[in-house]
């Protein structure tokens, strides 16, 4: 497939270079006379159709850029979207929101069908400031720069230039010396790009702080809680941080003792805090990864494997590592096509196996949602829901890792590693959330203070059982490798919240596998205009991150690991 023209997997029903034509379509919507509740509902549908056409083209261009950050044609198209189309969308979105909210029929819209949309539009109206448009465009330019920096990052390994994901995959190596070598090379690479990423983050923090000030908020953290229409408070997040530190970290320290014993080491060092008890990567070629995951999905539910096979056949997957690809992995919906695309920058490793399963959870969710309710609109997309089905898919497949690890002890080790990951998903994103609370409520911090704070929080949470003596500096700067901090601010704690739901799903699966899978599919296809709690309930679990639930799920997770070890 051509890297420059990838329209095989997305539809360009609208020419984003025809700026005047796009403006004319928006203006026609603004000029429509709304004389009844029926007129308003029809207008909302027409607006949605136009937005979906634009969104699909924008998404396709974004994926093209992530797949090849070095292609000048692709980069030019992507930058034109960011510098020209996005400001246009922001301007007209504000006008369309005003028109909708000011309609005398707005409050007559059915609350069950339109309630979430109404709240979303009202918050958009509250937040919009014309002077923020150029700041938001600049923010996207800085995010693009980060993708280019990371996409071009390579490391020399045994005399060969290797893509960065390859070096990261060596952290899973059974040989402790290899893990240590990879760890130091990764940190050396971070040190090389640190001046640029420090400058970039400094600028982003100031930019985002100004966006918040312009919108009438004291800081960007408070602004983002309104922008995300969160169904919980800032104080709830701080309570969650505390509950996990109180109940999950002690369990994590106990688990570390198990791993230390199995490794035969007295001191748990930073390069031991990885998936390092598996002898070999689970696959050698991407085709093997796809074959194996398809079989795992099929043994869980035929629909799940059908979606992977369909995506594979229609060019909706790009998983391998290569120079010029952006780091990370994601699944994005294509609202006009009704498809999803999974992007990842993988080298063979246990993590890449889990990451594909994770992204297939998102994909299955997207396909079920589209087939039952239609494409997910922006106001319906909430990470607390989306991540429930990605984490949930990982745990539903826990009993099928023997397809990649047929030897009994290797199979148990793989299960332990997935459950270890469940632990890290309870405290890792949460510690990242706490880090961002600090960054954006202390916007005048220095790069040195930022590194020190990241080290301090990391030591309180994930690195609690690790001897970090002498590694304070390199750990402090390792926030560089977390793209969420740059590109998706305050998208972190949702992973931890949804993991509590996914563990409840595993608990249900152990009691009745078929029923748990049916609940999963029911929730994944539910009406997303409902509250988060209602959708969790349709999935057979509770949206609850209270102290009692954190403690109970931590104990359940420890028990499952003990059962595997017995």
From TrEMBL:
The keyword Manganese does not apply. It comes from the Bacteria. Residues 172-554 form the Peptidase M3A/M3B catalytic domain. Its cofactor is Zn(2+). Binds 1 zinc ion. One of its GO terms (biological process) is proteolysis. Keywords: Hydrolase, Metal-binding, Metalloprotease, Protease, Zinc. GO terms for molecular function: metal ion binding; metalloendopeptidase activity. Belongs to the peptidase M3 family. This is Oligoendopeptidase F.
